[in-house]
Design brief:
The complex is a heterodimer of chains A (292) and B (439). Chain A is built from twelve helices and no strands. With 292 residues, chain A is an all-alpha fold. Chain A has a single domain, classed as Orthogonal Bundle (MetI-like fold), CATH 1.10.3720.10. With 439 residues, chain B is α/β, with parallel strands linked by helices. Chain B folds into two domains: 155 residues, D-Maltodextrin-Binding Protein, domain 2, CATH 3.40.190.10; 192 residues, Periplasmic binding protein-like II (D-Maltodextrin-Binding Protein, domain 2), CATH 3.40.190. Chain B contains 18 helices and twelve strands. In chain B, strands 1, 2, 3, 6, 11 and 12 form a six-stranded mixed beta sheet that branches. In chain B, helix 12 packs across helix 13. Classes of the chains: A mainly alpha (292), B alpha/beta (439). The interface between A and B is large, with 33 and 41 residues.
Amino acid sequence: MQSKRKQNFSLIMFALPALVVYAVFKLYPAVTGIFYSMTNWNGLSKEYDFIGLKNFREMLSDDYFWQSVIFTIKYVVVLLVIANVMALVLAVTVESVKKGKGFFRTIFCLPNMISMIIGGYMWRFIFYKVLYYMADNWGWKFLDQSWVGDTRYAFLSIIIVASWGCVGYLMIIYMAGLQGVPTHLLEAAELDGANGWKKFWNVTFPLIQPALTVCLFWTLNSSFQVFDVIYSLTGGGPGRATQSVAVNIYEEAFRGNIRYGYATAKSTVLFLIILIITAIQLKTTQSKEEEL
Amino acid sequence: MKKKLVSMMLLLAMTLTACGNGGENTSADSKAGEVEETASVEEVSSETAPAKEVELNIMMSFPQYMDQWEDYCDQFEAKMLAEENVKVTINLEMPSADQYDSILQARLTGDDTPDLFTIQANNIQTYANAGYLTDLTNEESIAKVYDNVKETVTVDGKVMGVPIESTAWSVLYNKQMFEDAGITPPETLDELKAVCVALQEKGYTPFMLAFQEQWVPQLMTAVTLGGKTTGDIPDWLERMYKDEASYEEVREIFDVINLIMENGTKRAMEEGSEVGAADFANGAAAMFVQGTWSANTIMTTNPDMQLGVFALPVNNNPECTRINLATSTVLGVYANGLEKEVAIKFANYVLDDNDSSALFQACGFNPISSIHAFETASWVQDAYKYVEEGRSYQDLVLPSSVTDEQGRLLQELYVGSVDIDGIIERLDGAFKEANELSK
């Protein structure tokens, strides 16, 4: 009992620095944010009024906000599938190569080391200059699309850049999961006559459920808050066609009418949406893990 | 294997942080060195009494003129030391223009306000009402400013900032191409149509379109609205602020906007403002609805460019063909600054009789005061010719949310996701909302 308590104490001590940073820079602003969401503060003046739930009522009829919510959900669903499938395929492939595993791992993980805002500007150059150069000079006419002006292609380019940025990170997590799969189980399956796909689907995949949980949680959480890719790539345009909730909040707070209070109310709603969805996701995937 | 991976990542993280720290340290060291250096110089020069030390924080939105302003700050520091025995240390910050507003707002709310900061002239009212700006009406420098420029920085009869960037602008054009096609700048919409036809016959694209950043298409509404309302319905804006008017009354402006879009370069949504200016300089099109502030980029890209300015016609009434006269950037003095006195001295020094001309010329700013006696570029003279003839209008001050909305809607009009009726409805709505909020 005594040693158990001691162990807990040292565990907390290890986590303390991170906890303090989390509390000061995440928890405290989140809690005060709930207060500001009930004011009409404009971010500039020193005075503001407490207006209760008026901001939240206004949000109900704010078409631009709901448009951005729908766009974000579309983005989350598409990215969730594409990024995770690609990351898993990459992880399995890299794991199965005999030589140069470290090389491929580093290569695929590199984009994750770059800030997405910089990555976005790099890709902007590719979409706006390089692709058109290839279309004009090499006759690759299928590249001659309006990469920002046409909403479909704008969405496609956002997905391409976003998955480029996060696949490497997810791949590392999946690889860690794959390395934890005991080889004797795979060998036993092989003896029982299971082929490559069956072996993966029936043995490996169930055993990497924990990695899947982490990856799904991470993609859900981060893609709901997507900002940097869209901001650097399309700026939310044309008009508001590619505006995610985070971009919508940013514009509300820092541009136009400069409404900090209202913008905070929107971010509170975004927070609740993410909280509910990730809670459901964690519950379902964890119960799957326990089944094993 | 796993261990190796983890240790590799840790190592990488450590090197990264180490690099970051290293960078910071060196810059701090060099700064400390500078300070020591200046300190030793000062010891020699002021043996009589120890100099009073003052630190000034200045934030401006001209990263492209960082060198010029740094030199000017040095001059100010030297002048203060020599004339008043005050050792001023200026910390000059220049965030990039598109993030400037959010950074300034964060600093204001975080009680970390710079002693002097630039703001958009359109926002003077907001900042003045919030109590951040010092009244400079009776300062010596303000007395020297031209009256029509002074008006642009006056709120409720008080001058709340030193005007810095003042521009007369409308449409940039390539004089060579116009000469080649045998045409002169148009005075009416019909003439503009003829100009487009003549240019196309010569194989030139009439208009440069660079719509990726919303503020660029927005310029089209800025010039057309200004011309239309000044010439035909002068009380329109006033009534808009009272919810008594509608964009329906100025529907005409979309005739010329449509004409520009139909006769423009391709891939406008993928073209940023800087790239657009460079392409225009390289002859991609003959005209560009863009301010003279982009002349710097244009002339760097193509020093042989013969750049001109004409006023964009809105309809067939030449009274509506006017140039936009605007003060875009203003230097404000923080009302509650610790070193307000010195800050005001700096604000005055910006319009110093001896030194100001060189600064304004180096930055390519237009003259705003009688003390600015320097030869301006030919395109600036083109634009100011309209001003002298009385064919200019004071830049319309719209709520900034409406300005943003115009930019967005013009992007949407270009890609075809909204029509003119939709634009009018949404702009009226945005204006009403802004009125509602400012109550």
